[in-house]
Amino acid sequence: MDTDALTAGLLQELRAAKPYPALSLTMPTHRRAPDNAQDAVRLRNLVSAAGSRLDADPDVSREARTAVKQQLDRAVDEIDPRRALDALVILATADEFQIWQLPRTAPERVVLSDTYLTRNLVAAKAQAQPFWALTVSADHAALFSGTSDAAHEEHIGGFPLTAPHEAPNPQREERIGDTPSTFTDEETRQFMRTVDERLRAVLATDPRPLYLVGLAPALALLDEVGEVAKDAVGRVTKGAPADTSPSDLLTELRPALDARQKRFAAEIDGKLDEARGRRAFAGGLDEVWAAVREGRAGLVAVEEHHQQTARVDQEHLVPVSGDAADLADGNVREDIVDELVEAALDSGAEVVFVADDSLKEHGRIAAALRY
Fold this sequence. Notes:
38% of the residues lie in helices and 22% in strands. It has ten helices and 17 strands. It is globular, with a radius of gyration of 24 Å.
């Protein structure tokens, strides 16, 4: 699955307690040759290490050990290397497995617990900045889920929608003198109301920035009869045929996506500047980590590719690297940035990813504090 499939409901399910052992396997992957040639070997070695962990764990019964290994093998068989991104996550219990391809790197590790490891999924989801895009015409509406890298059509909430077609009515045309304009016809207005109602339900379940694509009269009618379209962050005034492909849609959206990203970056800079002015600012991994743990962080900004291994030392973080990073030490966290992101989101903070080097003078991570 891709990160845009990680809804609040699904995340809650993943975090729910499970019969021990719930296995989480994570590893970095590569999108293109020749680097991706090593991925299969690394995965095979990691699966072997997972098997050894299961064999050596006295709390894992023989039946559970066999079942989890079988689920893990099934997962490996289903992995499509052509869809590889920057990390692979496999989650498995005796009864199920899930495969996640992430656009954010993750460390190589195997974790056995009574819940799945979700921090890498949550951080990747936050970084991807998923959005909804609605393509709409007088008789068809489709909903796409997307990130800056990819998009796909969703079949949820009643989408796609097609307006019912009525047979021509000559007597009606005689009464009004002509066939009514498409966008003043009551059937079309009712169709747009239905689109608005279905879209509001989707956004209530999974709120995201919304982009609209359609001819000007279609978008104007959606504005007139509905509510949700007024909050769209971007619009593309262009015809949206029913067979619009995800790649074509992403191409059409690119100027709107780039424009919003620039506005977004300026907005984040302004919030951090304001926080510095009122002395409610934290900069650097250790300061931000402390603020998040205390629930004081209202906004956390992280450079897109910032990753850091750190040792937790008396509730402070000490960055470590190279030979100093003993990953067998329980106080060493290889994915501390992703762990911080997950904790920040859990505390109600807003987490945003910004361009590399934009926070260089602040240790590549910063926070605006609530108090």
